[in-house]
Amino acid sequence: MWTKKGHLTGQKKPFKLEDIWRIRTRLEIEGNIMELALLNLAIDCKLRSCDLLRMKVRDISSGGVIQNRILYQQSKTEREVQFEITSRTAQSLTQYLMQSGLSSSSYIFPSPRKNGRPMSYSCYATIIRRWASQLGYDYYLYGTHSMRRTKATLIYARTKNIRAVQLLLGHAKLDNTIRYLGVEMEDALNISEDIEL
């Protein structure tokens, strides 16, 4: 579907592995510790933006130590989902939390404008669109859901294990995961490309 301004709307594209490395490198060079922690946690947790942004420091750490496995209840479905925090993400989160001085009851990514509130959806979306623009992409094709889809898409591409992706995303039905990843169409196109007549 297209907007009046001629931009494509609908499902947002996931970032590719090389895109993530390019974004990480840029943020590290800039010394942007907050956005680096945001990028890494968003990719690891595979949560919707509403859940990512409402996470508090106590949800991911205990006694100042970042946990490597988190059990978190999604607000949309009220289903619990488990995710891992990789060592790279734990390192960036530790550095960010030490620098920011946030308490355990603070939102991990607080609003820059409203005290005691989490970062807004629009602020998060603006950050992601900027990342996409810096990569030379049409930022209308990327959004907060790009972060949720990125690792899930990479896991499926590497393993073809749709059930694992379903569990990681917290989907109740396998059909939702198939639709979410665009698996049937992508696989059909790959098969078609491999057959020459």
TrEMBL record:
Pfam families: Phage_integrase. Residues 10-193 form the Tyr recombinase domain. Keywords: DNA integration, DNA recombination, DNA-binding. GO terms for molecular function: DNA binding. Gene3D superfamilies: Intergrase catalytic core. GO terms for biological process: DNA integration; DNA recombination. InterPro entries: DNA_brk_join_enz (IPR011010), Integrase-like_cat_sf (IPR013762), Integrase_catalytic (IPR002104), Tyrosine_recombinase_XerCD (IPR050090). Signal peptide: none annotated. SUPFAM superfamilies: DNA breaking-rejoining enzymes (SSF56349). Belongs to the 'phage' integrase family. This is Tyrosine-type recombinase/integrase.
